[in-house]
Amino acid sequence: MLSLAANHDAPTDLDLSDGRLSWWPAFLAPAEAAELATRLRDEIPWERHQVRIMGRLLDCPRLSCWIGDPGAAYVYSRVRFEPRPWTPTLAALRERVSAAVGVRFNSVLANRYRDGRDAMGWHADDEPELGPEPVIASLSLGATRRFALKHRGSGERRNLDLTPGSLLVMAGATQRHWVHALPRTARPVGERINLTFRLVEGDL
After folding, report:
1. In terms of residue numbers, what domain contains 94?
2. I need a surface site. Which of 1, 7, 162, 194 has the fewest CB within 10 A?
């Protein structure tokens, strides 16, 4: 497990070879995080996206929505996603996250994990439209879930429990050298909403 400091006012840099992780354990207060999870569950137009695997289109094991500025299209698994407009809540959160991280994000991928069966497989956010060293700011709401990282070369693994209201920022060469996942779990676990703010570079 990655070791975490107890400083809630400033990010803690986590020990990660060939990459850079910063962690705010309590970016949002517990009551605000809980209220936002409820609001976004109803406010976001959730969809069941599909990805292409070995030539077949398969349903993703979670609900998602791609939201962003006009022109911030995103291609994932050879499927192009046009952005939906910002909701009032997401627009306000973008301002707060952008100010904290120092990056003017123009898009966010919202993922809704309804229970422990919903998951995200191993991948890196290394699509060309994100640039060579993207900054990905991941805000967690709802239930705590285990976040896993694996080094592409050495196979080294790290785990981090993403708690509600926490903010994890992946930057530098992280996406080039590491993959990450949100594994399934058989443990009883509640619903989780994850917001990954990104900067898409230009129209595709």
Report:
1. 16-198
2. 1
Residue 9 lies in a domain: no
Q: What is the pLDDT of residue 7?
A: 40
Q: How many structural domains comprise the chain?
A: 1
Give the sign of the dihedral formed by CA 192, CA 48, CA 60, CA 94.
negative
Q: In whole angstroms, how large is the CA radius of gyration of the chain? A: 16
Closest among 147, 130, 164 to 37, alpha carbons compared: 164
Return the structure tokens found at 157.
Answer: 């693994």
- Asked, for residue 158, whether it belongs to a domain, the answer is yes
Report the pLDDT value the prediction gives residue 58, as an integer from 0 to 100: 74
DSSP characters over 134-160: --EEEEEEES-EEEEEEETTT--EEEE
Report pTM.
Answer: 0.91
Average pLDDT over residues 3-31: 80
Q: Which residues contact 65 (CB under 8 A, 6 or more apart)?
A: 44, 45, 46, 47, 84, 109, 110
Q: What is the CATH number of the domain that holds 45?
A: 2.60.120.590
Task: Label residue 168 by pLDDT band (50, 70, 90).
Answer: very high
Angle between helices 30-43 and 88-101 (to 10 degrees): 130
pLDDT at 54: 67
